[in-house]
Amino acid sequence: MQEILSHPDRRLKTHLSEVLHWGNLYKKNADCKLLNNINDDLLYSFFVFHDIGKSTSFFQKYIRHEDVNSDLKSHAALSAMLFLYYHILKDDITGNEEILEIMAYAILKHHGNLESVSDINDYLTRSSLENIDKENIAIQYKSIDMESVKKELSELGLELVVLSKIFNNDETFFIKSLVDFFTKRRREKSRDRIKSKRGNIETDTNLKNYFTMQILFSLLIDSDKSQVSVGDTELVKRVEIKADVENFIKKREAMPSSLNVLRSMAFEEVNKNINIDSNIYTLTLPTGMGKTLNSFNFAVKLRRKLLEQTGKTYRIIYVMPFMSIIDQNAGVIENVLKMSHKNVYSNMICKHHHLTEIEWVANENTLIEGNNAQILIEGWNSEIVITTFQQFFSTLAGHKNSMQRKFSKLSNSIVIIDEIQAIPVKYYKFIGKLLTGYADLMDSKIVAMTATQPHIFSHDSSTQLCEYKKYYTQLNRTKIINELNNIRTIDEFADELECAESKTYLFILNTIESSKKLYTLLKEKISDRSITYLSTLLPPKVRVKRISDIKAKKYDIVVSTQLVEAGVDIDFNVVYRDLAPLPSIFQSAGRANREGTGIYKGEVHIIKLKGNNGFYADTVYKSAKTDLDITEKLLKDYDILNEPEFMLIIDKYFDKMADENIKSQHVSNALLKGAVSQWFYGESYSLSDEKIPLNDFELIEDKGEKFQVFIELDDEAELIWNEYSIISNQTEDKWEHKAKLKAVSRKMSEYIVDINITTKSRYNKPPVDGNKVYYYVGMSEIDRYYNAETGYGVESDVHFF
């Protein structure tokens, strides 16, 4: 027989040996109590067996580009079955049933997404698929070159005596042994479920198996992909980082102010509270109090102390709710590092979101691009990772192969969660328990940071890093003015509005429709003032430039949607905010007299606007009606609310939101039960069910079908579109083609807006490209579809199809 291959250019034995090497490296880096409870011999065979199914004659024909039955060339299921069979014959099943089942499922799914661990129990015992499964596995097994595989696995360190029993061409005993194992496991699980119900055992806190499944799946797929794409383990070698945050602040804060004095007080207070005894820390400070640098300083010093006392090098993961503020915060942290390091490379700090530029700077002479760089970035192989809620929480509570690969990098990490209140209230209990379990089982630390700390963690499970109330009482930058009783239309509001020439104004509205209408009215009414507009209908390239100009004080008046609500450091004298849940209102308040240096006290006017279909607040916060009701009830007692009173009312708000009689945590409870039972993905379920799969967890609420529109704004956009058109029509290796499309799509993203079905139907409809992926607004016809001030969408009586 020819050499047994795993890839066109690689022997199977070489691949298995190197995946084992990568697996041991990643396992060492992910050292935690969860992995320490798993026998090393099991992990060894787990990595070695993961691709052994490639040894069939069917796969070997396929890898050499010969025609073969598609069902029989698949290898993951056979690999999982042979892994289990090895341990059945090795007679070390007893006491390891659960972990072996989890490992087998990880092998079964290592080229796909997680669905439900219960599927592995049914694999050869489902009546409808029984014969097909058994027949295919038996045929594949019989096609293996038994002597060659036995020899290679023996050379990789597996027991020859056991291997001789496995690879003896006795497919009948092979299948029977597996069926017996799965049948026994199903009975045991059924008994456990009955026992659990009778004993009224609360299972939603028993997340050990969930995290075990996730970390093993991650170790396997990360090792597999790294071996193929990265190759050199030096590229993922851990490095020391130095960061003198205190010195950086001293150099940056040149001008003394009362706010800087408070920042220094808070910095010193947090500095004194650095201890490794807690897993969950909360950092609550008013907006503008320097939480980014304060938390980063805490993380760097905690990392140093953990290294001294545990010998482990902890990764720092900085998580933010919005992609738009990643560059801003990453730039600050990178500047801190540059004060202590001659050069800052990718293994020290990287940004990761779905539009990340795919390049990895290994050293001053080496720039890695393409698939290798993508594997390094998406695998979080940096000491400091700056990322989004979407990336972090969709990994912590995820099921997709592409997301879960980095799960093991969450182990031994200090995770700073900025603006944690941005998590939807319905997920508070789910996220609270998941983070608590994660920190404990994976030896990690959480820093939950916000100006308005929600009740996600119980008081006895978290450590408060500073006495935040004293900072609120010493600040009096802003007052909230309650105008909720004066309900108005957009026209009525604009007509009544008086804007003082000496003040700057920010209007934050709930919908694009209402914000565009107000912008148009104000532009006509106040034509002598500089005014601009912000919403997601502006392409990212335009938004970034406009936000930069706003920061530079180039505009007196800005009309925006909620995209400026958190993390965007802009400052105005007066803010008008259409009704929203209280945390959003307080985030908006952080855009008024942010630095506290203005001659005017910041004003935040809370208004309630209505359109033809009711209140705009009800339109955008459909799933948060209770949040709005509680907000209105709490605010009705105040005509004016001064900043020192903010924490009093926000505490009341979160107390009420945590009361399950007022705000149900049914979704959280059902998701927790889904996690405990390792139900990662499902389609047939209802939100009223007691248990739901993890794919129901969505940070960004699905608002229906989305359409992507590419807007050819300039010459660069034209070049990018031409590049996309050429690539999309090329016929070549599918993986290379996919990589090229992914690379060009990142460049295209600067010119793309996402629109929903309502927006699509309201405006002129641009043509769709030949692949029916993007709607295309060419430069020559841009006026038909795009307004330079308000972005995509030109209202017209003529609709172009």
Automatic annotation (TrEMBL):
MF GO annotations: ATP binding; ATP hydrolysis activity; DNA binding; helicase activity; metal ion binding; nuclease activity
BP GO terms, sorted: defense response to virus
Database matches in Pfam families: Cas3-like_C_2, ResIII
Keyword line: Antiviral defense, ATP-binding, Helicase, Hydrolase, Metal-binding, Nuclease, Nucleotide-binding
InterPro entries, per database record: ATP-dep_Helicase, Cas3-like_dom, CRISPR-assoc_Cas3_HD, CRISPR-assoc_Cas3_HD_sf, Helicase/UvrB_N, Helicase_C-like, Helicase_Cas3_CRISPR-ass_core, P-loop_NTPase
Every HD Cas3-type domain range: 5-226
SMART domains: HELICc
Residue ranges annotated for the Helicase C-terminal domain, each copy included: 489-658
Cleavable signal peptide: none
Keyword Nucleotide-binding among record annotations: yes
KW Lipid biosynthesis (keyword) present: no
Family statement drawn from the similarity comment of this UniProt entry: In the N-terminal section; belongs to the CRISPR-associated nuclease Cas3-HD family.
Annotated NCBIfam families: cas3_core (TIGR01587), cas3_HD (TIGR01596)
Record protein name field: CRISPR-associated helicase Cas3
The organism of origin for this protein: Sedimentibacter hydroxybenzoicus DSM 7310
